[in-house]
Design goal:
Elements: H1 2-17, E1 43-56, H2 57-60, E2 69-81, E3 84-88, H3 96-103, H4 121-127, E4 137-141, H5 147-150, E5 160-163, H6 168-172, H7 183-186, E6 193-195, E7 210-211, E8 218-222, E9 231-236, E10 242-247, H8 253-258, H9 264-270, H10 274-290, E11 295-298, H11 302-308
Parallel strand pairs: 3-4, 4-5, 5-6, 10-11
Antiparallel strand pairs: 1-2, 2-3, 7-8, 8-9, 9-10
Bound molecules: zinc ion.
Length: 316
């Protein structure tokens, strides 16, 4: 019985993920080096698109088309708070090809892939002269430790890698596959892990929070379910607009609004804990109802990210 369910799941996923490769070239990020603009925000962010994959719309948007394709992005978010810069997620890093060969089993590769060209966050920052302008990246915060978010951890050996304490269990026991936290990415003993100390301070409907700079501009909240230590980040930029980075709690804003965060077959593969995921989505919808002006940023949502623009453009 289990094998029939698995077969059905694989066939369903095949229909959704097996997008033809010819679509790949269109939206490929440009490889030209562009300098960081001088009028940077006090508090703001820039989206580093490291890779993408074309998938069936139905996978990402409830009621979406089975023939139409849309992009799923693999993005890192560069966040600036006054003199400090940090990343929220890394997307794909410099070693992604070798990591994928080591930790994505052959049978899963048709369904969970990324397309060339890969432009690692480190490379984009170096090309823009980021590290020659007395700027450093002190920290990389992971929304969670899955392979398509932690792929660039090894590219930032100088940074502390911050995660929720509940995520450490996955880091200590890496696993392979699409819902895995890969040893090839997060298994190195040299990584300087920093467990985030959440406090019992309610914030925007969340019972626990961590106000990183104690000025209310960058606030982390636990959003368990997709993984035990999944977290979200609220960022209040210079304009006063609040952005909520939600990792993989849902793949698109459309899906959240429809109350159907992920296509069932995909959720069965990647979401660790169904009931907790459901709770986190319900909490997210409640917060959004309270504050309809909040801008949600799922890690993979290309529609939202296209609208905001990409590095070296800043959202202020
Ligand atoms: Zn994930």
């Amino acid at each position: 019985m289990r094998s029939i369910v698995l077969l059905f799941l694989l066939l369903t996923l095949h229909g959704l993920f097996a997008a033809p490769l010819h679509a790949a070239a269109n939206a490929a990020p440009s490889a030209t080096a562009i300098a960081i603009p001088s009028n940077l925000p006090e508090v703001g962010f820039a989206i580093l698109k490291t890779s993408r994959v074309a998938v069936r719309e139905a996978l990402l948007v409830p009621g979406g088309s089975l023939s139409k394709e849309i992009d799923s992005n693999f993005s890192a978010f560069l966040i600036k708070h006054r003199d400090e810069y940090f990343l929220f997620d890394t997307g794909m890093g410099r070693q992604i090809d070798a990591q994928y060969r080591a930790d994505m089993p052959l049978g899963w590769r048709p369904f969970f892939k990324y397309e060339a060209p890969v432009r690692p966050a480190r490379e984009q920052l170096e090309q823009a002269g980021f590290f020659t302008q007395n700027k450093t990246l002190s920290r990389v915060i992971l929304s969670h430790s899955h392979w398509d978010h932690a792929g660039g951890v090894l590219d930032f050996p100088e940074a502390k890698i911050a995660i929720a304490p509940a995520e450490m269990a996955l880091v200590k026991n890496p696993s392979r596959g699409p819902g895995g936290s890969w040893a090839s990415q997060i298994g190195s003993a040299a990584i300087q892990w920093e467990p985030l100390q959440f406090q019992a301070k309610p914030y925007r409907g969340y019972a626990q929070s961590l106000d990183l700079f104690e000025d209310g501009r960058v606030v982390l909240v636990p959003m368990p379910g997709h993984t035990p230590g999944s977290i979200g980040l609220f960022l209040t930029v210079d304009s006063g607009q609040v952005y909520f980075f939600i990792g993989d709690v849902a793949w698109t804003v459309e899906a959240i609004k429809a109350g159907a965060p992920k296509f069932w077959a995909a959720s069965a593969v990647v979401d660790g804990h169904a009931e907790q995921t459901h709770k986190s989505v319900a909490q997210l919808r409640a917060t959004l109802q309270q504050e309809p002006g909040l801008v949600l940023l799922p890690a993979h949502d290309s529609a939202v990210q296209d609208r905001l623009g990409y590095f070296p453009q800043w959202v202020k």
